[in-house]
Design goal:
The chain is about 80% helix and about 0% strand. The protein is built from 25 helices and no strands. Mean pLDDT is about 95; it is low at about 1-25. By secondary structure, the protein is mainly alpha-helical. The protein starts with a helix and ends with a helix. The chain is globular and about 65 Å long.
Length: about 425
């Protein structure tokens, strides 16, 4: 029964994407985005750096003015978003800790700011503790409730998510719309997720808030991609870049379309080369490694993996890249036990279906097939429709002799090749 539920949950997604893998018409045009790849100045970075220096100077002159610590933290957080530099995020944390200590952790606003920082670091349980305290303080309670929705979604507690969504329900509120959208995406209702995010975009455009519009476009682009609306996804990424030519995430999105949909790895790498020059996030190197693998360039694949590992070796990243570590190490004979250890930590910190899928996959890769199946059946099957989790589940089912169920999932996975990437196509056919 569980497998039928899983397939029914995924069928809408697969129908949307299956036609996409058959129809390989050219969608992108380098003339649309070339000028975004050769931007000489980064206005967002210049503005934010100027703000950072301003508040740093103010704080140096009057070190007891803890509100300046909060301003400095905000500038540091923005620098992290722009550059991917983890040091900026940690500096923001340090300044927010100072402000909270100076106010004896009695300012709901400062608590929310620190919680937001911890969410960025994937320290969700710590963020929850801060938001719980902010709830008791009560200042601007609705904002706390919105953030509690974010945290409980990340922790997989849907009962709490639904509870707080009911408290802030307002379809004329941007913050409510983006969260009801995320919730619908989480439960597999992609059509509603798109509908609510498109509605929130109307508000962002009404406010003429370029940052919110940019955020909307990139998130809509992701949803459109999940739904097989690749042309719409591409156009949304272009709109985000029109607002901010240095939007690394949007460039990565276009690179994925070029690679996965159009099977043009050289062009995808050309785009990503500009991204890794302007953004230090480690996961970009894993995408470059995947594309190198697809082209058969094993030396470059290892080079990019080593660049990823060198970056995440920085202790400041903490648990932020545990998912990537598990997937990477599980395929390495010398590191598969480490993958299992990390997956166990991830489940403890973030007991979601996706985390349990990582645990099941690492368990499978370590040769404990029955245990992997037990984990998958109890915590994954029917609880997530993510293609990656379905792929892992199919492998685990096949390894345990459940060929019929594995092949049923295989049919759906064939429609998810765009999202999973070209490397898995042969892998899926062999299930």
């Amino acid at each position: 029964m569980k497998y039928i539920q899983l397939i029914l949950l995924f069928v809408t997604f697969s129908i949307a994407t299956s036609c996409n893998t058959i129809n390989n018409k050219q969608i992108t045009n380098s003339k649309d985005y070339n000028h975004f790849l050769n931007v000489k100045t980064n206005k967002s970075l210049e503005t934010t750096t100027s703000e950072f220096k301003f508040w740093k100077n103010k704080l140096e002159k009057t070190p007891d003015q803890y509100p300046y610590n909060v301003k400095l933290a905000a500038a540091s957080s923005s620098l992290f978003k722009i550059t991917g530099n983890i040091d900026a995020l940690k500096k923001a944390e340090q300044n927010l800790l100072i402000a909270n200590e100076k106010t004896n952790y009695n300012s709901a606003g400062y608590l929310r700011s620190l919680a937001r920082n911890y969410i960025s670091q994937h320290r969700f349980k710590e963020a929850l503790n801060l938001l719980t305290k902010a709830t008791y303080i009560g200042e601007n309670l609705e904002q706390t409730h919105f953030m509690l929705i974010d945290v409980y979604l990340e922790l997989g507690n849907l009962d709490k998510v639904e509870h707080y969504l009911s408290k802030v329900k307002n379809f004329n509120n941007f913050n409510y719309l983006i969260r009801i959208s995320k919730y619908n995406d989480h439960i597999g209702n992609l059509d509603n997720a798109i509908k609510y995010l498109e509605a929130s975009l109307v508000f962002a455009e009404t406010y003429k808030n370029k940052y919110l519009m940019q955020w909307n476009y990139t998130n809509l682009a992701d949803y459109y991609g999940h739904a097989g609306r690749i042309k719409d996804s591409y156009n949304a990424y272009l709109k985000a870049l029109a607002l901010n030519p240095n939007d690394s995430y949007a460039k990565k999105g276009i690179a994925w379309i070029v690679y996965s949909k159009e099977r043009n790895p050289e062009e995808a790498l050309r785009i990503l080369e500009t991204v890794t020059k302007e953004n230090a996030a480690p996961d970009y190197h894993l995408l470059k490694a995947e594309i190198a693998d697809y082209t058969g360039n094993i030396v470059e694949k290892e080079n990019q993996i080593n660049k990823y590992l060198a970056k995440v070796d920085d202790g400041n990243y903490g648990v932020m890249y545990y998912k990537y570590d598990v997937l990477l190490f599980a395929d390495d004979e010398s590191k598969k036990e480490k993958a299992l250890q990390i997956a166990q930590l991830e489940v403890k910190a973030r007991p979601t279906a996706q985390s349990f899928d990582l645990l099941a996959w690492a368990t499978y890769k370590n040769g404990n097939l029955k245990k992997a199946l037990e984990i998958s059946e109890k915590y994954v099957v029917g609880k997530t429709f993510e293609p990656e989790a379905l792929l892992h589940t199919a492998h685990i089912l096949k390894a345990n002799g459940n060929l019929k169920q594995a092949r049923e999932i295989k049919k759906e996975l064939l429609g998810a090749i765009y999202e999973l990437g070209p490397l898995v196509e042969t892998e899926i056919h062999n299930i």
